[in-house]
Amino acid sequence: MSEPHATLAEEAAKLDAADELRAKRAEFVLDDSDNDSDSDDSDGTVYLDGNSLGALPAAVPARLADVIGREWGRLRIRSWEESGWWTAPERIGDRIGRLVGAAPGQVVVGDSTSVNVFKAVVGAVRIAQARAAAGEEPRDGTRGGSPEESRGGTRDEILVDESTFPTDGYIAESAARMTGCTLRPVPAPDIAAAVGPRTAVALVNHVDYRTGRLHDLPGTTAAVHAAGALVVWDLCHSAGALPVGLDAHGVDLAVGCTYKYLNGGPGSPAYLYVAREHQPRFDSPLPGWNSHADPFGMAPAYAPADGALRGRVGTPDILSMLALEAALEVWDGVSPDAVRAKSLALTDFFLRCVEAYVPAGRVESVTPAAHQERGSQVALRCADAGEVMAELIRRGVVGDFRRPDILRFGFTPLYTGFADVERAARVLAAVLAEAPGEVA
C-alpha cells in the first residue's frame, strides 16, 4: 500500500475507533464476506447505496416470522385489536415523528410516497384557497400582496422544485389540473424569491436526489409563509440522515419514504405529516374508509376523523408496516445530531480520499462542499459513469448510477464506517486508472 493510502487507511481506523455510533453496525445484516467478485481488489463488500435502499436491520426477520406465524397464523383477525394492527399507522408515525422533529399525533404511515405527495399537495392547495377566500391572515401576520389579491380564491399557483424527483413533478402537475392551478417549476434555491400573492403551495425536496444538495428548509418555509402560502417538503433523502425540525420550523405538510435511511425494506410504506394547526382543515383528495370518523359504521357519507388519521386511506399493509416498525428499533438511543455529525465526517473523508487517490480530471463532485448545503451523499460526475459503477459493484463497492454521468454514493451513519469510505475511494481510483478518460 502506497504512503498516501497507508496514511488515510490509518486515519480511517482511528476514526472508526472513536465513532460513538460504531456499535450500531452490529444491528444490521452486513455480511462483508458475501461478495461475488472475482477481483483481487476485493476484500469485502462496501455498501454505499443506503440512499436508495437501506440495509436490513437484524431484528426484522424474527419480528416478521412472529407476525406471520403467530399474529396472522394463529390469532388471525383478532390481531387487528390484540396485536395492535389497527393503530399501527399512527403508532409507527409517532416513532418516525421523533426522527423528523414532529410531536406525536402529526405523522401517519401508509401508502407510497407518490400517493402521499398527491394527498399533501391537493390538501395544501385546498387549505390555502379556503383561507384566501375567507380573507384570513397567514399565521405570521404577513400577507403576500394586497388584501384584495389574497382574498377571493386567487391562490391558484403551485410552485415545484424544478429538479425534483420526477414523480413529485408528475403528481404536482396532476394536482394543479385537479385544483385549477398553474404549475410553475422553479429552482429550489429560488423558491423563496419566486413565491407570490397567487401561490397556494410550494413543493420542495429537502435534499436533491441526484446531487445531494441540501436545501434551506427553515428559510424557504419562512419565505413561503410570509407570502401567505403553504409548503410541502419531500424528506425522502433527509429523514434518518440529518435533523429536520418540522415543528420547530413551522412546516405545514411533509412526506417521505422509509426504505432509504430509515431502513424499512423494499417498498416499505411512506408517511405523511400534517401540522396540528392544519389538521381540522385538511381535506384529503383520497377519503377512504380508514380515515372516516366511524370506519365501522359503514355510513354512505364521508365524515373525516380527527387528527393525523385523516391521512389514512385504505386497509394498512400490515406485513411491510410491522417490518418497518421493527427496523426503527435501531434508532433507540440515537441522536439525530450525532447522525448528522458522522454523516458530514464520512462525506468529508470520502471527498478527501477521492482527491488523494483518483487521477486528476477523472471525476468532478457536484455535491456542495459547504456543510449547510450537503445531505448524506456524494455525487461525482464521470464520463463513463455507467461502466464505472458496474465495475465498482463487481469489485464489491456498491453505489449507484444516475444518467447520464453521475456516480452516487450514499453514507448511512448507522452502519457505514470510515474504513468503508477509504476502501471505496481506493477501488474507485483503481477502476478509473484502468479506464482513462476525462470528466464529461
Automatic annotation (TrEMBL):
Pathway involvement of the protein, from the record: Cofactor biosynthesis; NAD(+) biosynthesis; quinolinate from L-kynurenine: step 2/3; Amino-acid degradation; L-kynurenine degradation; L-alanine and anthranilate from L-kynurenine: step 1/1
EC nos: 3.7.1.3
InterPro entries: Kynureninase, PyrdxlP-dep_Trfase, PyrdxlP-dep_Trfase_major, PyrdxlP-dep_Trfase_small
Stretch list, region Disordered: 131-159
Cofactor: pyridoxal 5'-phosphate
Catalytic activity annotation: 3-hydroxy-L-kynurenine + H2O = 3-hydroxyanthranilate + L-alanine + H(+); L-kynurenine + H2O = anthranilate + L-alanine + H(+)
UniProt entry tagged with the keyword Hydrolase: yes
Gene3D superfamilies: Aspartate Aminotransferase, domain 1 (3.90.1150.10), Type I PLP-dependent aspartate aminotransferase-like (Major domain) (3.40.640.10)
Signal sequence residues: none
Sites bearing N6-(pyridoxal phosphate)lysine, chain numbering: 260
Keyword entries, A-Z: Hydrolase, Pyridine nucleotide biosynthesis, Pyridoxal phosphate
Pfam families: KYNU_C (PF22580)
Biased segments, Basic and acidic residues type: 134-158
Chain residues that bind pyridoxal 5'-phosphate: 113-114, 165-168, 234, 237, 259, 289, 315
Domain of life from the UniProt record: Bacteria
Enzyme class: hydrolase
Keyword Aminoacyl-tRNA synthetase: no
Subunit and interaction comment: Homodimer.
Function text: Catalyzes the cleavage of L-kynurenine (L-Kyn) and L-3-hydroxykynurenine (L-3OHKyn) into anthranilic acid (AA) and 3-hydroxyanthranilic acid (3-OHAA), respectively.
Family, similarity comment: Belongs to the kynureninase family.
Designated name of the protein: Kynureninase
Lineage: Bacteria, Bacillati, Actinomycetota, Actinomycetes, Kitasatosporales
Gene: kynU
